[in-house]
Amino acid sequence: MTKRSGKSVSFDAMIKFFMIRFEIPTRQDIQRIVNRLDQLEKTIKKNAICGKPKRSGSSKVGGGNSRMSDSGQALSASEVILKAIKSSAQGLDYAGISEITHFDEKKIRNILHRLYKTGKIQRKRRGLYVAG
Protein backbone atom coordinates (compact mmCIF):
# COMPACT_ATOMS: atom_id res chain seq x y z
CA MET A 1 0.00 0.00 0.00
CA THR A 2 1.46 3.32 -1.00
CA LYS A 3 1.05 6.36 1.11
CA ARG A 4 -0.49 9.33 -0.59
CA SER A 5 1.70 12.37 -0.55
CA GLY A 6 0.32 15.86 -0.20
CA LYS A 7 -1.48 18.02 2.25
CA SER A 8 -4.21 16.51 4.36
CA VAL A 9 -7.59 18.19 4.21
CA SER A 10 -8.96 19.56 7.46
CA PHE A 11 -12.43 18.73 8.64
CA ASP A 12 -13.44 22.42 8.55
CA ALA A 13 -12.32 22.72 4.94
CA MET A 14 -14.40 19.68 3.99
CA ILE A 15 -17.49 21.11 5.70
CA LYS A 16 -17.02 24.47 3.98
CA PHE A 17 -16.60 22.73 0.63
CA PHE A 18 -19.86 20.77 1.03
CA MET A 19 -21.76 23.84 2.25
CA ILE A 20 -20.69 25.82 -0.80
CA ARG A 21 -21.18 22.95 -3.23
CA PHE A 22 -24.70 22.07 -2.03
CA GLU A 23 -25.69 25.69 -1.26
CA ILE A 24 -26.38 25.06 2.42
CA PRO A 25 -27.02 28.37 4.22
CA THR A 26 -24.76 29.43 7.05
CA ARG A 27 -25.81 31.03 10.32
CA GLN A 28 -24.90 34.41 8.90
CA ASP A 29 -27.11 33.83 5.85
CA ILE A 30 -30.06 32.89 8.04
CA GLN A 31 -29.46 35.88 10.33
CA ARG A 32 -29.47 38.22 7.29
CA ILE A 33 -32.81 36.77 6.20
CA VAL A 34 -34.28 37.16 9.70
CA ASN A 35 -33.10 40.77 9.87
CA ARG A 36 -34.62 41.50 6.47
CA LEU A 37 -37.94 39.92 7.54
CA ASP A 38 -37.93 42.11 10.66
CA GLN A 39 -37.42 45.20 8.50
CA LEU A 40 -40.27 44.17 6.19
CA GLU A 41 -42.61 43.53 9.12
CA LYS A 42 -41.85 46.97 10.57
CA THR A 43 -42.52 48.57 7.19
CA ILE A 44 -45.82 46.72 6.82
CA LYS A 45 -46.95 47.68 10.32
CA LYS A 46 -45.97 51.31 9.73
CA ASN A 47 -47.94 51.40 6.46
CA ALA A 48 -50.92 49.69 8.07
CA ILE A 49 -51.01 52.37 10.76
CA CYS A 50 -50.51 55.28 8.36
CA GLY A 51 -52.95 53.97 5.76
CA LYS A 52 -52.44 52.40 2.38
CA PRO A 53 -48.90 51.93 1.11
CA LYS A 54 -47.81 54.32 -1.61
CA ARG A 55 -47.21 52.88 -5.06
CA SER A 56 -44.15 53.96 -6.94
CA GLY A 57 -44.56 55.20 -10.48
CA SER A 58 -47.48 56.89 -12.10
CA SER A 59 -48.59 54.25 -14.58
CA LYS A 60 -51.93 52.60 -13.94
CA VAL A 61 -53.15 49.39 -15.46
CA GLY A 62 -56.71 49.24 -16.67
CA GLY A 63 -58.68 52.45 -16.41
CA GLY A 64 -56.02 54.96 -17.29
CA ASN A 65 -57.80 57.96 -15.79
CA SER A 66 -57.54 58.70 -12.08
CA ARG A 67 -60.68 57.96 -10.07
CA MET A 68 -61.10 59.93 -6.88
CA SER A 69 -63.36 59.39 -3.91
CA ASP A 70 -65.41 62.15 -2.31
CA SER A 71 -62.58 62.81 0.17
CA GLY A 72 -60.04 63.29 -2.63
CA GLN A 73 -58.20 59.97 -2.26
CA ALA A 74 -57.64 57.70 -5.25
CA LEU A 75 -59.95 54.69 -5.31
CA SER A 76 -58.63 51.18 -5.75
CA ALA A 77 -59.92 49.07 -8.63
CA SER A 78 -62.02 47.01 -6.19
CA GLU A 79 -63.59 50.16 -4.79
CA VAL A 80 -64.36 51.45 -8.29
CA ILE A 81 -66.15 48.21 -9.24
CA LEU A 82 -67.97 48.03 -5.90
CA LYS A 83 -69.12 51.65 -6.28
CA ALA A 84 -70.38 50.91 -9.81
CA ILE A 85 -72.35 47.87 -8.58
CA LYS A 86 -73.81 49.83 -5.64
CA SER A 87 -74.92 52.64 -7.96
CA SER A 88 -77.07 50.25 -9.99
CA ALA A 89 -80.45 49.41 -8.45
CA GLN A 90 -80.88 46.05 -10.23
CA GLY A 91 -77.20 45.14 -10.14
CA LEU A 92 -74.69 44.99 -12.96
CA ASP A 93 -73.59 42.32 -15.34
CA TYR A 94 -70.06 41.83 -16.60
CA ALA A 95 -70.58 43.97 -19.73
CA GLY A 96 -71.97 46.84 -17.67
CA ILE A 97 -69.03 46.77 -15.29
CA SER A 98 -66.61 46.69 -18.22
CA GLU A 99 -68.36 49.63 -19.88
CA ILE A 100 -68.26 51.76 -16.73
CA THR A 101 -64.75 50.96 -15.53
CA HIS A 102 -62.89 50.23 -18.79
CA PHE A 103 -60.83 47.59 -16.97
CA ASP A 104 -59.59 44.54 -18.84
CA GLU A 105 -61.44 41.23 -18.60
CA LYS A 106 -59.01 39.41 -16.32
CA LYS A 107 -58.88 42.26 -13.82
CA ILE A 108 -62.68 42.44 -13.58
CA ARG A 109 -63.00 38.68 -13.11
CA ASN A 110 -60.40 38.65 -10.33
CA ILE A 111 -61.94 41.61 -8.52
CA LEU A 112 -65.49 40.21 -8.79
CA HIS A 113 -64.28 36.91 -7.35
CA ARG A 114 -62.51 38.67 -4.48
CA LEU A 115 -65.52 40.88 -3.70
CA TYR A 116 -67.82 37.84 -3.76
CA LYS A 117 -65.54 35.86 -1.42
CA THR A 118 -65.40 38.74 1.09
CA GLY A 119 -69.20 39.11 0.98
CA LYS A 120 -69.24 42.65 -0.40
CA ILE A 121 -71.26 41.57 -3.44
CA GLN A 122 -73.68 38.75 -4.17
CA ARG A 123 -74.55 36.90 -7.34
CA LYS A 124 -78.24 37.35 -8.08
CA ARG A 125 -77.91 34.91 -10.94
CA ARG A 126 -75.11 33.90 -13.25
CA GLY A 127 -73.36 37.04 -14.45
CA LEU A 128 -75.45 39.52 -12.44
CA TYR A 129 -73.89 41.09 -9.36
CA VAL A 130 -75.57 43.15 -6.62
CA ALA A 131 -74.14 44.85 -3.55
CA GLY A 132 -74.15 42.59 -0.54
CATH C-level of the largest domain: Mainly Alpha
CATH homologous superfamily title of the largest domain: Winged helix-like DNA-binding domain superfamily/Winged helix DNA-binding domain
Which runs of at least 5 residues are low in confidence (pLDDT < 50)?
58-66
Distance between the amino and carboxyl termini: 86 Å
What is the spatial order of strands in the main beta sheet? 1-3-2
Q: Quote the average pLDDT.
A: 81
Number of helices: 5
**Number of strand segments:** 3
The helix/strand series, from N terminus to C terminus, equals: HHHEHHEE
Strand content: 5-15%
User: Share of helix among residues?
Assistant: 40-55%
Quaternary form: single chain
In one word, what is the shape?
elongated
| Computed Rg | 28 Å
Characterization of the model:
The chain has 132 residues and is mainly alpha-helical. It folds into 2 domains: 11-50; 77-131, Winged helix-like DNA-binding domain superfamily/Winged helix DNA-binding domain (Arc Repressor Mutant, subunit A). The chain has 5 helices and 3 strands, in the order αααβααββ. It has helices at residues 11-21, 27-50, 77-87, 94-101, 105-118; strands at 92-93, 121-125, 128-131. A 3-stranded antiparallel beta sheet has the order 1-3-2. α3 crosses α5 (105-118). The model is unreliable at 58-66 (pLDDT under 50).
